[in-house]
Amino acid sequence: MFPSRIWRDSKHRYRLEAGKCTKCGKIVFPYRLICPECGHREFEKVILPDTGKLMTYSVIRVAPSQFTDQAPYAVGIAELENGVKLLAQITDCDVEKIKVGMEIRIEFRRIQTDSHQGVLSYGYKFVPKWY
Amino acid sequence: MRDVAVVGVGMTKFGEIWEKSFRDLYVEAALAAIDDAGVDRLDSMHIGCMTSGLFVGQEHVGSLMADYLGQKNLAASRVESACASGGLAFRQAFIEVASGMSDIVMAGGVEKMTDIGSDGATYALAAAADQEYEVFHGATFPGLYALMAVAHMEKYGTTREMLSAVSVKNHHNGAMNPFAQYPFEVTKEQVESSVMVASPLRILDCSPITDGGAAVILTTVDIAKKLGKPIIKVIGSGHATDMIALHSRDDITTIKATMVAAEQAFKMAGKTIKDIDFAEVHDCFTIAEIIVMESLGLYEPGKAGEAVLKGETGLEGSFPINTSGGLKSKGHPVGATGVAQMVEVVKQLRGEAENGRQLKNNPKTALTQNMGGSGGSTLVHILEVA
Q1: Residues A62-72: pLDDT tens digits?
Q2: Which domains does chain B have, with CATH numbers?
Q3: What chain B residue is nearest to A13 in terms of C-alpha separation?
Q4: What is the mean pLDDT of chain B?
Q5: ipTM (interface predicted TM)
Q6: Distances in Å between the alpha carbon of B11 and those of B21, B69, B117?
Q7: Is B168 helix (H, G, I), strand (E, B) or coil?
Q8: What is the CATH class of A3-128?
Q9: Distance from CA of A102 to the nearest CA of B (A)
């Protein structure tokens, strides 16, 4: 993975920066040039809340090449307090104890170690609130 | 618009075809379709292929395949919509003939998936998802459909048994298809004890990694009559997309792109789901067949799983689905799948399906549904015996 590709998305992945449509209020993550709800083209910067609820999840046992060393690992979709939905890994817990509806918080973690360029990439993961 | 008919179909045996290359697979299927149609020329060719660049390092597929098919200077192009690439090739050919631009057009599809290892194939297939916001985090294709399965189970009480019933049914049908990759029966117990890929989906819930090619020839109804082939008309075509990332969609227990594409196809055909006799749908995972049945309007949301358990979609059922064995048993060479669905429905409509899987009730009208990614795109077509 080329460093510029990771750097380009760092504001989303490191700081959870999203865009709020100044016309209809739709929050888009990551940032977009045009609102998918109303077609407006201006957004103000907002930071996503770091807590939410798990809507669905799966424990991945057959992983793509860049994640084989991490398998098995859980991924899920969580709905944050402002209604924005995200997909991320669920970490720091026994995967057998994950449940739909459980409360999560977002933490900053290492996501993958790319073998070709040796670049580490970071971003957000979900951690169960009870942990 | 001119009336369009499918006059020739052909496909390779699906499977791990070590002795045949990317180009061999396509040309073999294309020649079979040309021979079946009895045409002596092509005006153009659309080839569905998802990611030959990642699978075999080959792009510029139009030039390569026209060359090896012996069609000097043919207008040939590759179209891509992930696993719906084949369906898209069919639609492009349909539009081209219907518009009057060309008279005899091939829609083909091909994928050579076993020249790389399984983690490489998992990576290549994941390219159909949102690379930066799904794949980056470790999501895989079975993983995304697993997220849909868990959500569907939570909302509607869909069960493990219902998923297994899809796999058992499709393997039963595929066991009678000489072109299928896995032409054998599986039991509920085998499905439920097979290795876990992405919970709750096990390996026997997943379509396999497959090499294969398929091709069909479309022409005007007038030319079809002169060729003396049975007239299988294309009466409806729909194509829609949706947000690429699963988490961006309002409801992940349904596939909106399929709903919209089906509406378009039904409107063009002047028909409803009640007028359709049988269908080939995109069962890349067992849960996909259940969700697609609901998205097509065949069953109310949450009711399709029960219908599969009752046998309503079996060969003898009220609405047979995936008589070919589906992606599950027949195999899923991603770019070829949408075209291979056409091969099956044309065989069924002609009364030519092999080995006892021919539908007995003399079917007249068929539907195909082919989707890309986790439902980010869908093609729906309706074909009818003229």
Answers
A1: 988 889 889 99
A2: 4-117+208-385 (3.40.47.10)
A3: B133
A4: 97
A5: 0.96
A6: 15, 15, 24
A7: helix
A8: mainly beta
A9: 13
